[in-house]
């Protein structure tokens, strides 16, 4: 929901020039930027508007992999716009309307450029509707990992991080523009469609079942999901009657959910440490895809390509605070997600009688300086190495080293204050460093420089 104020300020003089120069009768405003200005993913997101809500109506047929969608996107122009972009890859766009009026559109790579009739005034709310269809596949990200809408033999495994949402719907694809979502997903009768949030309706007619899910909390697009498969839905309750909805592939054995058994206990533990659980429901999607081999913290409903380990479940739960509620302001800040979730995993392991975080840190710190283990620096890993081991492990070690430096009291107060200050929004490392310095009363510039931005093994800090 928030947009970069800095970018808007930088563009203001340019907009004024364009307005003055516009000949009589021309559409006022200027074209919206094709990206938000994220150095790692320059095409990700778009400039000039702020999405409030996505209403996604999808129909998917797993055998033919045919996906037909109607996306109804409610937004507000943050400046006068002659055109604006959405991100969408593949598909045939059949029609675009803005506030019910047919709008012009053109495509260029992942940019869908839309020309609303008469343009949009600064501050104007508008609704853009995009009708599209096509055949889905098994897309991969810059590092070669499967992501986005991944067609599987029995449905689809959907996990967008970092920029895979445009593989299934038109979107302002950047964490700085969070929105609420409604999903209406129609699949062949017998299949289950599961998305973020809560199930609000299910109806079957003429061999097709429509599943309606409502996700009211602000969500970054990389955390949206709409998995389709042979899932059984299981309802239970977490602390404070939090609804927990798990979707488990019917073809998996009974032990497939062993790793989920302590979910409610984990929510209580992390709520005590980090502050109240930030969303309206929780649960897991456990798929039987043998190839994808990963987990993603999709908001309220992490997805696991196969039966998860308990430590992975703890990791994805911790992301609900760190990553999902407090999201990275740009992709370079990924350690704020992965370092924190990995450290939370260590805390859970210690809490449940396993290795202590201190012992884990010590064992890892014993690794020789010559190994690749210490690189790339987690504070600036580069787009291709966004999910390098060091982002997770050296990121978590950074937090443990910080804890030793500022003491347990200040450290745990910092984790809570970090979530409180930025919940529902985005943040960057500079803000984390300043908060840590304020709470500890210490200058931590050199410390974070060493751990986050300097290649190799930290030897003094
Ligand atoms: N955020 C996910 C996790 O740590 C990892 C996503 C990995 N994505 C990828 N394209 N390799 O749980
Ligand atoms: Zn993670």
UniProtKB/TrEMBL annotation:
<dbReference type="InterPro" id="IPR001930">
    <property type="entry name" value="Peptidase_M1"/>
</dbReference>
<dbReference type="GO" id="GO:0008237">
    <property type="term" value="F:metallopeptidase activity"/>
</dbReference>
<keyword id="KW-0862">Zinc</keyword>
<protein>
    <recommendedName>
        <fullName>Aminopeptidase N</fullName>
        <ecNumber>3.4.11.2</ecNumber>
    </recommendedName>
</protein>
<dbReference type="GO" id="GO:0008270">
    <property type="term" value="F:zinc ion binding"/>
</dbReference>
<keyword id="KW-0645">Protease</keyword>
<dbReference type="GO" id="GO:0016285">
    <property type="term" value="F:alanyl aminopeptidase activity"/>
</dbReference>
<feature type="signal peptide">
    <location>
        <begin position="1"/>
        <end position="21"/>
    </location>
</feature>
<dbReference type="InterPro" id="IPR027268">
    <property type="entry name" value="Peptidase_M4/M1_CTD_sf"/>
</dbReference>
<dbReference type="InterPro" id="IPR050344">
    <property type="entry name" value="Peptidase_M1_aminopeptidases"/>
</dbReference>
<feature type="domain" description="Aminopeptidase N-like N-terminal">
    <location>
        <begin position="52"/>
        <end position="223"/>
    </location>
</feature>
<dbReference type="GO" id="GO:0006508">
    <property type="term" value="P:proteolysis"/>
</dbReference>
<keyword id="KW-0479">Metal-binding</keyword>
<dbReference type="Pfam" id="PF17900">
    <property type="entry name" value="Peptidase_M1_N"/>
</dbReference>
<dbReference type="InterPro" id="IPR045357">
    <property type="entry name" value="Aminopeptidase_N-like_N"/>
</dbReference>
<feature type="domain" description="Peptidase M1 membrane alanine aminopeptidase">
    <location>
        <begin position="310"/>
        <end position="451"/>
    </location>
</feature>
<dbReference type="InterPro" id="IPR014782">
    <property type="entry name" value="Peptidase_M1_dom"/>
</dbReference>
<keyword id="KW-0732">Signal</keyword>
<keyword id="KW-0482">Metalloprotease</keyword>
<comment type="similarity">
    <text>Belongs to the peptidase M1 family.</text>
</comment>
<dbReference type="InterPro" id="IPR042097">
    <property type="entry name" value="Aminopeptidase_N-like_N_sf"/>
</dbReference>
<dbReference type="Pfam" id="PF01433">
    <property type="entry name" value="Peptidase_M1"/>
</dbReference>
<keyword id="KW-0378">Hydrolase</keyword>
